[in-house]
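Human:
Care to share another protein and its fold?

Assistant:
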Amino acid sequence: MSKLFKLIRSKMKWKLILVISALMLFIVVFTGLIVYSKTSAIIKNDVEHLSNQVLKQANLNLERYFNYYSEGFMLMSFSPEIESWLSVQKDDKIRSFTLFQKIRDNYITPYMYQYPEVIAVTLYNSNGNEINYSMKYGFKLDYSFLDSGLESFMAYENIADVRWSNDYYFEGKAMELPVITLMRKVRYGDHSGYMKSDINLNPALQLVNELEIGNNGYGFIINSDGKIIAHPDQSVIASQLSEPYLDTIRTQSSGSFFRKETNEIILFGSINYFDWKTVIVVPYNEFASSVYFIRKFMIMIAAAGLLLSILSAVAISSSFTKRIAKLRKTIKETSRGKINMTDIGGKDEVAELGNAYNAMLEDLNNTVNELADSKIAGQKAVMSALQSQIDSHFLYNTLELINSLASLEGHSQIEQTTIGLAKMLRYTSEYKSSVVPIEHELEHLNNYMDIMKLRLGEQLEYELHVDSDVLQGLCLKAILQPVVENCMKHAQPELDQSLQIHMDVLDKESDGRSYIEMRIRDNGKGFSADKLAWMNEQLKQISLSPLHHSFNNIGLLNIHFRLQMYYHHDPLAGITVRNLEHVAGADITITLPKTYAVQEGNTDAI
């Protein structure tokens, strides 16, 4: 297997054979699966449709069958003779028998002649009087309504159930019969009692036996508790339906489902009068023979298609893999330093590839020369950078010299100015990190303000308030001084006022996260309405798409761009520009997440 795998990896011919074969196999298998699944679904739908028709017809017959019994039974319970019989005392045998004869002649006998399946009728009143009547069978000697196992039925006003009864004798022999027991509680005034009728289950069983779909399909009837009422196998009558069936059937009045465990289609529907359900079980295999034939046929087609695809792949790949092998050999020689152009031949894509490779070899010398030129240019750039660094050191040394001369001459203002300018230059020209502690950023700003204070004197007032717990927080380098410089350039206070700049660096929270807020305010005239609208629109565009920001000389926009790029994960990071309320002046706020330096190694934000 490993040799075959290596052969496939090293030879394009075998790769093409594998790809074409796999593609053909995929198409055949995919088509076969679709046909198989669609055919299976159609057959299953046809079986369910046919079974539903049988189920509806069976339920209609069963409802008609049971309604006849219940209607006659109900008519009997409303008779005046029953009303009179309910008041008969237990010891008044003559009156009880006389009234029963009328009930028998007027109701029971016609009821039994009309419905020969009726086995017996029992009347019982609350006085303890009881009469049992049957035209076909005799009752066992000690038979009593109260002792016949019907105590649970007496809690209902009207009930119908199926049970095995051993209350009857025929030709002197005890019998055990599956019967449908109808029981109804009757009440007239202060007198009450029960009417019971046992009905032979065989007619219902005949209807159930007709519920056959295919050779092995069958039907049965269950009640609302899941007890089997009628079944072709009489041994399971009055037993409980197994849970896999019952869980699904109990929750719906009608429907169907497929049981994968037994490969059966189960359909069920309600018999309205008794709250019973008719269930049909259809073995799917009896109707799926055509599906299985299609499956076998598709397997044969797939095998034939795979064989054909392998032969086709061999024939097609051999026509151009030879030229590819020739080109491969040429490329290997090139990798060893031999630059030899080779004619691949042909007019297809492989020929174009060979021509392109030859053109590449022809340009190789030019590429080498250009690479040499690039290295020389790179060396010049390095030298230029070193020279720039030398110039910067010269500038720092010159400022130190001016500071020394000013100190010797006692010019403290010149000395302070050169020291502040040197610190500012060192701060802005150091590129080792893009973020610094806020404490360093404020030192840089104070150096700038000291120089401006020397220039403007009493015309400049500067006030700074900083929360102590934000000094070690990190921020981008050189974002405060440009904002304050913007205030110095554009703020225009009244003629009799000095320029006042107030700055607060505060610790804030928003949505459970810590932020640093830097707020700079001045007492100038503020932004004009047009300028403020334009600035806010530009800030909004940068927030939406920072990479499309075109750099300009507006320092506030560039600072907002830097904040957006560095804190791209936080939508609150950036600059907010507005005018002060109630007084004149501009109000600029810088917001950034509160982060601290890594304790070891890198000093960038975590």
